[in-house]
Automatic annotation (TrEMBL):
<keyword id="KW-0862">Zinc</keyword>
<keyword id="KW-0479">Metal-binding</keyword>
<dbReference type="Pfam" id="PF26200">
    <property type="entry name" value="Rcat_RNF216"/>
</dbReference>
<keyword id="KW-0808">Transferase</keyword>
<keyword id="KW-0833">Ubl conjugation pathway</keyword>
<comment type="pathway">
    <text>Protein modification; protein ubiquitination.</text>
</comment>
<dbReference type="InterPro" id="IPR044066">
    <property type="entry name" value="TRIAD_supradom"/>
</dbReference>
<dbReference type="GO" id="GO:0016740">
    <property type="term" value="F:transferase activity"/>
</dbReference>
<keyword id="KW-0677">Repeat</keyword>
<dbReference type="InterPro" id="IPR051628">
    <property type="entry name" value="LUBAC_E3_Ligases"/>
</dbReference>
<feature type="domain" description="RING-type">
    <location>
        <begin position="1"/>
        <end position="169"/>
    </location>
</feature>
<dbReference type="GO" id="GO:0008270">
    <property type="term" value="F:zinc ion binding"/>
</dbReference>
<keyword id="KW-0863">Zinc-finger</keyword>
<protein>
    <recommendedName>
        <fullName>RING-type domain-containing protein</fullName>
    </recommendedName>
</protein>
Length: 253
């Protein structure tokens, strides 16, 4: 998935900060305005308080929903009721309890939707042409299908360029085709009609592979609980039965 310019800027800034101070864990931004803070590993707060004049909203650091923040130091009876109510500040403690598994689920999903440059890890967007990628950020040439950089790709001529990675792809499992629409010639699950369809199928395989790993580490009961706490997770829209029975080999040769 392509990063918006603002996101890319924030990502690069975050990366630079992390080099300066490895304790920096993440950039937390207010869901309602542009205010953000840099949190370190030691800061594992449940709640995020926006300090921007005019916004000053409180939000859950896990589900990002807003809750009412008590006005003064002394909490009134009404405010306490509000805090304890459904959607109130205290109802978000259960979000925090499921924070790690929620993050693991989201990471697994994200891995399926994007392909990153093997050198600098910035996401690459494939156009509908070939599988050769040139990173916008660091200029590395890499292969969209196996994700390896040109230098590490298996080639018919070790000194050759990425085009030599495409030779004999239909019989050699270390090689990749130049176009995703070629794969259907040897593996009928893949669309030969359009690159868009073939790409969608590729990302489905990647997503399923990554979710299979997730379900190896987390029991289905844990996942059911996660769905109860976060409707956003419950509405994943994926066919988990298909995931279980599908052969996830990228190219069946
Ligand atoms: Zn704000
Ligand atoms: Zn929450
Ligand atoms: Zn790069
Ligand atoms: Zn490749």
């Amino acid at each position: 998935m392509q990063m918006e310019p603002e996101q890319l800027e924030m990502y690069l800034m975050y990366k630079a900060m992390k080099i300066v101070d490895p304790k920096i864990d993440k950039v937390m931004s207010c869901p309602f305005c542009k205010y953000f803070e840099v949190w370190t590993i030691d800061n594992s707060a449940n709640f995020f308080y926006c300090r921007k004049e005019g916004c000053q909203k409180g939000s859950c650091s896990v589900c990002f929903k807003e809750f009412k923040v008590p006005k003064g130091m002394a909490v009134t009876e009404d405010e306490l009721e509000e805090m304890k109510s459904e959607g109130g500040m205290m109802s978000h403690y259960k979000c925090y309890e499921h924070k790690d598994i929620k993050e693991a689920w989201e990471d697994a999903l994200e891995k399926g939707t994007k392909r990153c440059c093997p050198e600098c890890k910035v996401g690459g967007v494939k156009d509908d042409a070939c599988t050769h990628m040139i990173c916008d950020n660091c200029n590395t040439t890499w292969c969209y299908l196996c994700g390896k950089k040109e230098a590490n790709c298996d080639k018919s001529d070790p000194n050759g360029n990425i085009y030599r990675h495409n030779d004999d792809w239909n019989t050699n499992s270390k090689r990749c085709p130049m176009y995703l629409t070629q794969i259907g010639q040897v593996d009928e699950r893949w669309s030969t009609a359009s690159d868009e369809e073939a790409k969608a199928f590729f990302h489905k395989l990647l997503t399923y592979k990554s979710l299979k790993n997730f379900f190896k580490k987390h029991k289905s009961k844990e996942f059911k609980n996660l769905c109860k706490v976060f409707p956003s997770v419950a509405n994943h829209g994926l066919d988990l039965k298909e995931l279980k029975r599908m052969d996830l080999t990228i190219i069946k040769r």
